[in-house]
Design brief:
The protein is mostly helical. It has helices spanning 7-17, 22-29, 33-40, 61-69, 103-113, 119-126, 130-138, 152-155, 160-188, 204-207. It contains ten helices and no strands. The termini are far apart.
């Protein structure tokens, strides 16, 4: 159930300007009946100025009159035609002017300690631009000489929870990409222990054995049976 903007101030006005029961006022303002009775007796909410709910559009005169005639009736909040506040869209993160000069230091710290972070993640984390990140990385920033890597959490540019969350996401993405690269490399490079054996028979030159001082043992390619091997006389 929707409640008025200022419940006690509204209850003060209803007590002073209507004949509604304590229970009806308590139900509408979200208070206890005894608390409403304490307001009527001057023991609670002393010094609070009454707020007219009909002036703010929270309650209509007809609704008050209806409940005054029926003590069992409950007040119903009027429907508001005021436009509802729009939600903030995703965009560049606002940074106070006093802390904008610290962004290059934070970028340098993130590039040094968390190289796995992408430029888009750094942009969302501290509210900077990709051009500034690239300038700090290439040392082409106009204030490169004075840039000192400093933790963005200590600089107040982000919270520790946001930093931990975005670092964990970057590490998980890097871990998923690493095994895929390793498997592709292993599939292309042959292993040393599994080199294919050659099926070609040994050549005739390799089959002949030469020992100094002895006759050469012929091979079957000479046309005749191989000569017996004879050791030289000692």
């Amino acid at each position: 159930m929707n409640l008025p903007l200022m419940p006690k101030a509204t209850a003060v006005w209803l007590i002073d300007n209507t004949t509604l029961t304590f229970q009806q006022i308590a139900d509408f303002c979200g208070l206890h009946p005894l608390e409403v009775q304490g307001i009527a007796d001057g023991e609670v909410a002393m010094g609070i100025q009454g707020l007219d709910p009909t002036a703010s559009g929270e309650l209509s005169r007809e609704e008050i009159k209806r409940c005054e005639e029926d003590s069992s009736g409950k007040l119903k909040m009027s429907k508001r035609d005021l436009p509802q506040p729009t939600k903030r869209t995703k965009g560049p993160r606002y940074t106070p002017v006093a802390k904008r000069q610290d962004k290059p230091d934070a970028i340098a710290w993130l590039l040094r300690h968390h190289p796995e972070l992408k430029d888009a993640q750094i942009t969302r984390l501290i509210g900077t631009t990709k051009n500034t990140i690239q300038a700090v990385r290439d040392r082409t920033h106009w204030n490169t000489a004075n840039i000192r890597p400093r933790d963005p959490v200590l600089l107040g540019l982000c919270s520790q929870i946001d930093l931990n969350t975005i670092v964990q996401k970057a590490q998980k993405a890097a871990a998923k990409a690493k095994p895929a690269t390793t498997d592709s490399d292993e599939g292309t490079a042959p292993s040393e222990g599994n080199a294919p054996a050659s099926d070609a028979p040994p050549s005739a030159e390799a089959s002949s054995l030469e020992i100094p001082g002895t006759e050469t043992v012929g091979s079957e390619s000479d046309g005749g049976p191989p000569k017996p091997f004879v050791f030289p006389d000692q």
